[in-house]
Amino acid sequence: MHHSVLLTFILATLGYGQSISRAQGPPPPPEVLSTIKSGVLPVLPTGTPFAGVDTLEGAIINPGPINSGFTGLAGTATAQSNLPAATYRADLPDTMFDPYVGTVIRGSVEAVGTESGVQLTVNLTGLPNQAQYGPFPWHIHALPVPADGNCTATLGHLDPTNRGEYYMCDASAPETCQVGDLAGKHDGKIMAEGSFTTSFIDPYLSTDPNSVAFFGGLGFVIHTSNTTRLTCANFEMVGGANGTSGNATSTGNVSMPSATGTPEFPGAAARTEATFGIVFLAVVLSLFF
Ligand SMILES: [Cu+2]
User: Fold this and answer.
1) Secretion signal: which residues (predicted)?
2) What separation in Å is there between the alpha carbon of 116 and the centre of ligand 1?
3) How far is the CA of 283 from the centre of ligand 1 (A)?
4) For a surface tag, which of 47, 88, 118, 159 has the fewest beta carbons within 10 Å of its beta carbon?
5) How far is the CA of 240 from the centre of ligand 1 (A)?
6) Does residue 236 sit in helix, strand or coil?
């Protein structure tokens, strides 16, 4: 009896915090980059609770069929307008979270509030071997990167509509995508090796700290195609809301956005947390009764 309880507990633990990302086309051959700096889990589960889904280092790499038009449990994302003209920037660190890809990704993502959404400007260098590790998913995640630089601690994607991560984003209906799924909404995963630059307006992100789509302080993450987390950085405020931003190298008035306390992270991560809590409670009760 206790064996089955223990097994349930282990499986629930493996499911805890599981974060997933979608993949277009077949994934590349498994490439074990590290036993500790991985997608989500520290080891390759041998008894994954996600039947029928391939995993590598705990990251789901085959999310199943496309369900275009999929809408989150909390509806579709809201198009923003008249946002505070604050500037946030995620500056990638000198050291990669996962340094086993033979290069260091450097650069930044700058994000400025506009009349009709958030203008993002992406400048990256050092993207690793495309054939071996690409294409590279890139997202805004649900939690900040902690001081130790642990990209795994950012959990899944910013997902205020509670869409979950089991279905690919349909770029022709971006309001149905996860708000943090920059790759899905904007030209897909990065297909470039070396340098990559792009700029676009995302209508669904917000520079208003009171919005569920507020990304200030949250982590930007770049993955390998198997969702291993390569590098990450938080969006920190580098320009105020008075419209005087625009100097990308300015570090004046650097301040973290107002403490976000408990950042929004509904979606898959929250659901697995709830499941974990229930199973954990059941295990504890079974020990006593
Ligand atoms: Cu991500």
Assistant:
1) 1-17
2) 24
3) 32
4) 47
5) 27
6) strand
Q: How far is the CA of 287 from the centre of ligand 1 (A)?
A: 38
Q: What is the CA radius of gyration of the chain?
A: 19
Cα-flanking dihedrals φ and ψ of residue 30, to 5°? Answer: -55, 135
Residues 6+ apart with CB under 8 A from 87: 110, 111, 112, 113, 237, 238, 239, 245, 246
Instruction: Report the 10 Å Cβ neighbour count for 210.
Output: 7
Please give the distance, rounded to the nearest whole angstrom, from the Cα atom of residue 182 to the centre of ligand 1: 9
CA of 168 to the centre of ligand 1 (A): 13
* Domains of the chain and any CATH numbers: 2-288 (2.60.40.200)
Distance 278 CA to ligand 1 centre (A): 27
The tens-digit pLDDT sequence of the chain (289 residues) is 355 444 344 333 333 333 333 333 433 333 333 333 333 333 333 433 333 333 333 344 444 455 556 777 778 999 999 999 999 999 999 999 988 888 999 999 999 999 999 999 999 999 999 988 888 989 999 889 999 998 888 888 898 888 776 667 888 889 988 899 999 899 888 999 999 999 999 999 999 999 999 999 999 999 888 778 899 999 999 998 754 444 433 333 333 333 333 332 223 333 333 333 444 444 444 444 4
Q: How far is the CA of 199 from the centre of ligand 1 (A)?
A: 19
CA–centroid distance, 56 to ligand 1, in Å, is 15
Using CA atoms, how far apart are residues 108 and 134, in angstroms rounded to an integer?
A: 19
Q: Do 11 and 208 meet the contact criterion of CB atoms below 8 Å apart?
A: no
Ligand 1 mean position, distance from CA 280 (Å): 27
Q: DSSP secondary structure string, 200-217?
A: EEETT-B--TTSTTB-TT
**Separation of 157 CA from ligand 1 center, angstroms?**
6
Q: How far is the CA of 184 from the centre of ligand 1 (A)?
A: 11
